[in-house]
Structures are given as structure tokens and as C-alpha cells.
Design brief:
Elements (H helix, E strand, L loop, with lengths): L3 H16 L13 E2 L9 E3 L1 H9 L3 H10 L8 E7 L3 E6 L1 H14 L13 E5 L11 H19 L3 E8 L4 H17 L14 H14 L8 H23 L6 E4 L1 H5 L2 H11 L3 E4 L2 E4 L10 E4 L8 H13 L4 E7 L6 H10 L7 E6 L2 E5 L2 E3 L11 H8 L1 H9 L7 E4 H6 L5 H20 L16 H11 L1 H11 L2 H21 L7 H25 L8
Parallel strand pairs: 5-6, 5-11, 6-7, 11-12, 13-15
Antiparallel strand pairs: 1-2, 2-4, 3-4, 8-9, 9-10, 13-14
Helix pairs in contact: 2-3, 4-17, 5-14, 5-18, 6-7, 6-8, 7-8, 10-11, 11-12, 13-14, 16-19, 16-20, 17-19, 17-20, 18-19, 19-20
The chain binds one RNA strand through α2, β9, β10, β15 and α16.
RNA sequence: GCGCCCGUAGCUCAAUCGGAUAGAGCAACAGCCUUCUAAGCUGUAGGUUAGUGGUUCGAUUCCACUCGGGCGUACCA
């Protein structure tokens, strides 16, 4: 059973085309079906009659009637067709067809919802990519969680995914970092130092200096910032970053160091390609990229007059390596503070002939943190931030993951810390987990009553609550596919919330114990199927599915 | 100034390729546990979708302008 809805849509399209032999105006039309928001309007709906109405200068309802009377419907699949509103044609599925879905869930279990549409394709998802200058903040959390979840989604639709972290341990930022540690070290040795305001103010810098002092004493008194101080800071901070991510179940496969682009000559190679193709020129001692000829606003510097490249050149070279590594899909996820940088990179890649269709740049908006009614401005430099670790400590990994996943990435998100701490029990993640734990508990209880899942009598599931739940379960695979193709993690969270709500209603009105055995076992099948789907959905989100709460 | 993003219920947010009566959660109010987990369920109340115009059978969605907010706009990354 693969893309049920799509199969059905195809089947309906064929039906429509068949009837077009009898109705001329249906020829050469592109039929679209959609799932109505309101359940009363059926399972699939077409607006075809309204589209035709203008063209034929006829009442849409009468066109709809004519179309319906010319359809050859299979009553095993479609139980009812109706005209509604201004001229929608609504199709209702047969119960048989709906309950087939439960059987599929039991066949596939932990794999239910996966599809093979992109089987054999490879994707690279680059996310987090924070330079190792300090702990990850809450702002990075959104990037980390969404990136990892998008990678999960892609895996569910068949991609083989590499999670990648790009960093730079060479630039000015890192020199300042090393020097910050050096000064703190000298300070600990009792020297009078003047710690510059634009250096890294965080307490972690002192900790690193302390460690160095403890291990090696004062031997590094004359050492430069770029030696042990920078190296030590980098490795300590990176270790912490990985630990922070691990707490949220995030693990990158590839850590790509910008420096390797210099070492293996990639930067020079790209630079000479630009030169040879006349895409760059020299002016005032610097090398400029002709972005204005590539469709962008203005030319930009790629090599400064000092001979040092700007960030654009390594960024372009880096993305070329992604193309050379033969990915079918290349995803960059970063915060809106980078929104000015990617058009240059894209334009350059396009000018070099790379297929931009393969590359998707996803930009998430900032997370504003408010505490005690005030907005907290965050800066790593000024050590004025709330770390991702602190957030995980406060509300737990499940809540952190769920919270960041439940909003579309283009929305500006507000995180009220007081609320998150105080009302953490009211977070919707518990609503889902509770539904899962509840089903587990049912399963434990009914086992003692000698009831077991039975798929023979699913036609007994006829109540509103049962049918609604059944339909919702059937949509999962399509939801995953849609969410993955559109990189929308929040669709999964809202789907699961609706699914859990349907289940809780079913639980309230359709008891299993004390019911006639055949019906009880059919209901148990429905409950267990729901458990599987909730667990699978939570797995995609990276949230745990507890057996007990 | 220019570019990207956003503006929907008191608060935080949904709403499929433009679809039918704009939906949830929280907060508020009124109910439901002597049978499977009350972290649940049922009901009430809450809206000029920032504003104005346009496109059309039909607009929260597309277009233009206005207002308000965020992030950018370097020979920093």
C-alpha cells in the first residue's frame, strides 16, 4: 500500500477521463482532488465543476450532476458521491477501503509511514555550523532541532542522508578567542591585564584558562594566542557542543573544516576558474566577483587587497565540494542573520553551471527569548545568552525538540522562559506522550482478559470516533511525504496532535473491556495501530514515546 | 533607502495548489472518574485574518500601496 491517497486520486482521474468520452468538455482537463478540511465534506473533493462553470457558461451544480451520472464507480472503494456548496463534488470512501489501512500498519509497524519515493537518492543536510567560539545558545537550538528533524524526514521518504557541520577554526574570530583565553591565563598568573570589551566575556573562557594552568603551570606565559590557547579552546568548546547536541539526540556524520579548502587547493582552483571565465576582475588591489552580471545587485569582493579571501570564496568552494560529492539534494539551514549571504553563493554556483534545483536554502527566523516580561538580547561575545544546555536542563530534551519542531521555520518565534518552566506540564508534547502511554497501559490490561488484536472484524468499527481515527491513521504516510518534501516539521506535530485528540475521544466513548469480544478485538487493533503511528511520528521528531507516565 | 521574513481569538500558534461555516493549545467559565491512565473528555465564550484597493465563481493565501515588528545590507563570518 503505497501513497494511498495518490493512488486513489489517480484512479479517480482515470474515471473522469473515461467519462470524458461521453462528456466533451472533460477532455484535456487536469483534474485535481483535495482533502476537504471538514470531514462532513467527504474524503476527497474536486472543484472541477466550478472551474468549468465559467468556460461553459453553465451552473456549476448542474455540471457536477452531469459528471457524476457519467462516472463508473467501484462501490468497494467509493461509497458515496455528493454535490455540495457552490458545486464541489465530494467522494466518500467505503469502509472496507479505510480498514485496509490498519492491516498495512500491522504489516509495516516501525516502518509504517516510510516511503520509497526517493529511494537511491542522497541528500546532504548542513545545519548548526556554529564556529567553536562558545556554547550553543537557544537560538542555535532551533537550527539544530529543525535540521535534524528535516534530515529524519528525508530518510523516511527514502533518501540516504548525511548530516554535516561546517566550521572555520582559522579566522579573526578564532584569533580573538585564543587571545581571550591567553589573557585570562595571564590574569590567573597574577598579571595585571586589560581585558578588551570585544573579547569573549564568558565564564567558560576562564574555565579553559584554569584547566591549562592546572595541567601545565606557567610554561605558556610567553605563548602566542594562536598556539595552545586557540587549539585548547577550540577542542574544549567543540567537545561541549557535541555533548549539547547529543543530549538532543543529534549527531553529525561529517564535520567539514573550512581550512581543508585552503589545504587541498580548492580555493585557488575556484579562483582561477572565475578568472579564466571572466567572471572576476581586479580593482583597487582586490578581486571582485561580477555578481551584477549574474543577476544580483552589485559586485562583491572575494579576495581582499590584503590577499585574504572574504567568506564568499570559501563558501562557494565549499558548496562546489557538495556538488562534487554527488548529492541529489543539498540543504543549507541557517538563521535569518545569514539571509544576505546565500544569494551571492547561489548566483556564483549558477554561473559556474551547477544545477541550483538541487540546492535548497532554508532560513529560519530568530527565536526571541523573553524572561520576566523582558526580551533577552543574546550575544556570544558579551556572554549574554541562555545556553541550549540550560534550556535542556530546565524543560527536558523532549520538550525542547517538540517546541522547536512545532513552528514553521519562517515564523518569528517567541520563547517565554518563565512559561516554559512553570507550565511545562501543559506542553502539547505531553498530550501525545500521554496518548501513547495510555495505549500501552490498555494493552497491558487487556492481555490479562485474554483479548488479542484481531484484524478479521474491522468492519465493526462504525462509530464516529472509530471512523475518524481510522481515516486519520490512513493519512500518516501522505503527511510524512508532504512534510518532507516541503521541509515542514510542524505539519508532523499538528498531525500528531490531531491524531492524539481523535484517540482520546475514541478512548472516552469506545471502551474495550466489557464489550463483545469481536468488537473489543477490533477496537484493540485500532488502538494498537494508533500506538504504532504515534511512536513513528515521535521518532521522526526525535521525541521519546514512553510506555508509562 | 534597499533586500528577506512576519502581522490571524486575551497569549502562543494552525489553516493543503486560492476553496465550503478561519481551527487548536493555554488562560476564563460550566460539567464528567464504584470498569482499560482525569497529563483525559464534553460544553460555553472569545475574530472586520493590521489597513486600503485590485485580480475571480471564491482571498488568511496572489498583486499593489500604507502602517507596525524582526533580521540583514563590509575589502567581518
Amino acid at each position: 500500500m503505497f501513497h494511498r491517497e495518490k493512488l486513489l486520486k489517480n484512479r479517480l482521474t482515470v474515471l473522469m477521463q473515461e467519462s470524458s468520452e461521453r462528456l466533451d468538455y472533460l477532455k484535456d482537463l487536469n483534474f485535481t482532488f483535495e482533502k476537504p478540511k471538514n470531514e462532513d465534506h467527504g474524503d476527497l473533493s474536486s472543484n472541477i465543476a466550478m472551474v468549468l462553470s465559467k468556460q461553459l457558461k453553465r451552473n456549476p451544480r448542474s455540471i457536477a450532476e452531469e459528471i457524476i451520472s457519467n462516472l463508473n464507480l467501484d462501490s468497494n472503494i467509493i461509497s458515496k458521491v455528493a454535490i455540495a456548496g457552490p458545486g464541489f463534488i465530494n467522494f466518500h470512501f467505503a469502509h472496507n477501503y479505510l480498514s485496509e489501512g490498519i492491516k498495512t500498519i500491522f504489516e509495516k509497524r516501525g516502518d509504517y509511514g516510510k516511503s520509497k519515493k526517493f529511494f537511491g537518492k542522497r541528500a546532504n543536510v548542513e545545519f548548526v555550523s556554529a564556529n567553536p567560539t562558545g556554547p550553543l545558545t537557544v537560538g542555535h537550538g532551533r537550527n539544530a532541532v529543525c535540521g535534524d528533524t528535516i534530515a529524519n524526514l528525508l530518510e523516511w521518504i527514502g533518501y540516504e542522508v548525511d548530516r554535516e557541520y561546517y566550521f572555520n577554526n582559522a579566522g579573526r574570530q578564532m584569533r580573538v578567542l585564543g587571545d581571550s583565553v591567553r589573557l585570562r591565563y595571564l590574569e590567573l598568573l597574577g598579571e595585571q591585564i586589560d581585558f578588551p570589551q570585544d573579547y569573549y566575556q564568558g565564564e567558560y573562557i576562564r574555565e579553559i584558562a584554569k584547566d591549562i594552568l592546572k595541567e601545565s603551570g606557567s610554561v605558556y606565559k610567553e605563548e602566542s594566542a594562536e598556539g595552545i590557547f586557540k587549539d585548547r579552546a577550540e577542542s574544549e568548546i567543540f567537545k561541549d557542543i557535541e555533548k549539547t547536541l547529543e543530549r538532543l539526540n543529534i549527531k553529525h556524520k561529517i564535520f567539514f573544516n573550512e581550512n581543508t579548502l585552503y589545504e587541498d587547493g580548492k580555493i585557488d582552483e575556484v579562483l582561477s576558474i572565475f578568472k579564466n571565465r571572466g567572471l572576476s576582475y581586479e580593482k583597487e588591489g582586490a578581486t571582485w566577483l561580477k555578481l551584477s552580471e549574474m543577476g544580483n545587485q552589485q559586485d562583491k569582493v572575494i579576495v581582499k587587497s590584503t590577499g585574504e579571501p572574504t567568506y564568499r570564496l570559501p563558501d562557494i568552494a565549499y558548496h562546489i565540494t557538495k556538488y562534487e560529492r554527488n548529492y541529489d539534494l543539498i540543504i543549507d539551514l541557517f538563521g535569518s542573520d545569514h539571509n544576505a549571504t546565500y544569494p551571492d553563493v547561489m548566483a556564483a554556483l549558477g554561473a559556474l553551471g551547477y544545477d541550483l534545483e538541487k540546492m535548497k536554502v532554508l532560513i529560519h527566523q530568530f527565536v526571541t527569548i523573553s524572561q520576566d516580561g523582558e526580551i533577552v538580547k543574546m550575544s556570544t561575545r558579551k556572554a549574554n545568552y541562555i545556553t541550549l544546555d540550560e534550556l535542556s536542563d530546565e524543560v527536558g530534551a523532549d520538550v525542547v525538540r517538540y517546541f522547536f519542531n512545532m513552528r514553521g521555520i519562517s515564523t518569528h518565534m517567541n520563547f517565554d522562559l518563565n512559561l516554559a518552566k512553570k507550565h511545562s506540564d501543559e506542553n502539547p508534547v505531553f498530550y501525545l506522550q500521554y496518548a501513547h502511554a495510555r495505549i500501552c497501559s490498555i494493552v497491558r490490561t487487556v492481555k490479562e482478559e485474554n483479548l488479542s488484536v484481531n484484524l478479521e472484524n474491522l468492519d465493526l468499527l462504525q462509530s464516529n470516533e472509530e471512523v475518524t481515527l481510522l481515516k486519520k491513521l490512513n493519512h500518516f504516510e501522505d503527511e510524512v511525504l508532504y512534510s518532507a518534501e516541503n521541509f515542514e516539521t510542524n505539519r508532523i506535530t499538528s498531525y500528531l496532535e490531531e491524531l492524539a485528540a481523535h484517540f482520546h475521544k475514541f478512548y472516552t466513548f469506545s471502551r474495550i473491556l466489557g464489550t463483545e469480544k469481536r468488537l473489543a478485538e477490533a477496537r484493540l487493533a485500532l488502538a494498537e495501530a494508533t500506538k504504532i503511528v504515534i511512536a513513528n511520528g515521535l521518532t521522526i521528531l526525535g521525541v521519546s514515546a514512553p510506555e508509562k507516565m
